[in-house]
Specification:
Distance between the termini: 42 Å
Strand order of the largest sheet: 1-2-3
């Protein structure tokens, strides 16, 4: 029998002392509920699981919200104001008469390349710091880790915005602020997915992941709308408002987030990591073995909860039991079937997705007669389509059991969709809207599926046996490789648009999707072959 109270876990007459760190906000809520409804029975685990989903969703929405303003502000940072009149709320004086909308050093013909440099400073810093962030997060309380990361990310976004009122024109200031922001932004993904994994355990939940992963697109949408509200009057507020909002959200995380069920006296979800054993085992006596493993897993789980440390970059919580083998290395993780293919595929998938993230508002303004505000508002439709794409990819993957085929089909349709949007997307507003939704669905669907459900399944592959220490490494390889593609895409887009035009940017994106499709071809053939074998067996 397992009993949990404030200080100990009692298991088989053994007392295991726990280090508890209950968030102040949760203590206040529980105290208020106990006073107001002392006789009402509440399913605490379900109630807290709902709160965890909401808090992690809020957190990562804010992370992406602060990444988006730079793409909206590009329309005015590089705009030639000589033929325009300032808005009524702009009072011209000697200090701003020549720079009320354009902004040195982005007021030259090389502005696209310089703005691309800012994107690359952020994204390369993000990719490089991801592994260090994972190392730190494994050893600290995730509530403090996420709180600090959100506050620091909000401050870096705010610092970019104050360049407007303080009249800062140094390119290296903007590069430094973007790089610092990229470093602190790495606290987001490993933090939120580990917390969700701690509370919900393991399972193939493509639909749930697809819905939860919509925080990425929602953050992009909110970031675009907030930035668009101020971009033509005072672009500095396009950064300062999201930055302040993220700082406030970080304070909410500090007050209410419980990284682990044991922190508030709940039993963690068990058993874990039996899916692949059950699926691939040919031992007829596996039921008895599973029962024994289940008993051992409970004791292992409780022992692992003596500290407040949490695993990093895992979609599902792993048991920290050294008796199950040493943590797998990078070479061992890369030898898992599918890891290399999905890593390289995500490189090209993120290259396309992040190019749209950072350049779509400017492309719409350059290819149409729409204002900077309308261009920013239209760009959110790409992320609306991305939400639908993530959910659709999760449903198809769950239903068919073929993740590679699902991704390949979407990549295949994305290529003609990109071609059509580039050639006729600017004809009419209605056409632009429909095509943006379709492109967002097809581009972001595979990206979302690979970073969530696929990474989790590869990290618990049958070839690992009972080694539960592979998930963090596998996910780090896949996400880290994808982040490099996210850094390369916007940089290339800035250079190509400057020297070869926007049409060639879209040809670059189409080539990236075709390469992603090619990289998945071996896995697609394997999944189709396995599907045929299952049909014959039936």
């Amino acid at each position: 029998m397992i009993q949990i109270n404030t200080n100990i876990v009692r298991y088989k007459n053994r007392k295991i002392k726990l280090k508890r760190d209950r968030p102040w906000g949760l203590q206040a809520i529980e105290y208020a509920v106990s006073k107001c409804c002392p006789h009402r029975r509440v399913n605490r685990m379900s109630w807290h699981q709902g709160g965890i989903l909401a808090l992690t969703y809020l957190a990562y929405t804010c992370y992406h919200m602060t990444r988006k303003p730079i793409s909206v502000a590009k329309n005015v940072l590089s705009l030639n104001c000589s033929s325009l009149s300032p808005p009524p709320n702009i009072i011209l004086n000697n200090s701003n008469r020549d720079t009320w909308c354009d902004w040195a050093p982005f007021d030259t013909a090389d502005a696209p390349a310089l703005l691309g440099l800012l994107d690359s400073a952020f994204l390369f810093a993000y990719a490089a710091a991801m592994f260090l962030s994972g190392f730190i997060a494994e050893r600290v309380n995730l509530r403090y880790f996420l709180t600090f990361g959100m506050l620091a990310s909000g401050i870096s976004c705010y610092l970019f915005g104050i360049a407007r009122p303080y009249n800062i024109h140094s390119l290296w200031y903007f590069v430094l602020v973007q790089a610092i922001g990229g470093v602190f932004q790495t606290s987001g993904w490993p933090g939120v997915v580990t917390v969700v994994g701690n509370w919900f355990g393991k399972g193939k939940r493509g639909l749930i992941f697809g819905i939860w992963n919509s925080h990425t697109s929602l953050g992009n949408i909110l970031g675009s709308l907030i930035a668009a509200e101020f971009v033509e009057s005072d672009w500095g507020l396009s950064f300062m408002v999201p930055g302040a909002t993220m700082g406030f959200a970080g304070f909410i995380i500090f007050l209410f987030l419980a990284p682990n069920p044991i922190d508030i006296g709940c039993i963690p979800p068990v058993p874990r990591y039996r899916k692949f054993d059950a699926t691939h085992s040919s031992d007829e006596g596996s039921s008895a073995d599973d029962s024994e493993h289940f008993s051992n897993d409970i004791e292992d789980d409780l022992a692992s909860l003596r500290s407040e440390t949490s695993p990093i970059l895992s979609r599902h919580r792993r048991v920290q039991d050294h008796n199950r083998g040493n943590a797998i290395g990078f070479i061992g993780a890369m030898s898992i079937p599918g890891v290399i293919e999905y890593s390289l595929t995500l490189f090209f998938a993120k290259l396309v997705s992040y190019t749209f993230l950072y350049w779509l508002p400017l492309y719409i303004a350059a290819s149409t007669t729409y204002s900077a505000t309308l261009s920013a508002d239209l760009s959110v439709l790409f992320d609306v389509g991305g939400i639908a794409g993530a959910i659709l990819a999760g449903i198809l993957s769950d239903y068919s059991g073929m993740s590679a085929v699902t991704c390949a089909v979407m990549f295949g349709f994305a290529v003609p969709a990109l071609f059509i949007y580039d050639n006729i997307g600017s004809d009419k507003l209605g056409t632009n809207i429909v095509l943006l939704l379709i492109v967002g669905l097809l581009v972001n669907g595979p990206y979302a599926l690979i970073t969530t459900a696929v990474s989790a399944e590869l990290g618990t592959h049958a070839s690992l046996g009972d080694n539960s220490k592979a998930l963090a490494t596998v996910t780090a390889i896949i996400d880290g490789t994808g982040s490099i593609g996210a850094a390369v895409g916007p940089l290339l887009a800035g250079l190509v648009s400057r020297w070869a035009g926007w049409h060639n940017v879209f040809y670059m994106l189409m080539a990236a999707d075709m390469l992603a499709l090619l990289l998945l071809s071996r896995l697609v053939c394997r999944e189709i072959q396995m599907y045929r074998q299952r049909r014959r067996a039936v």
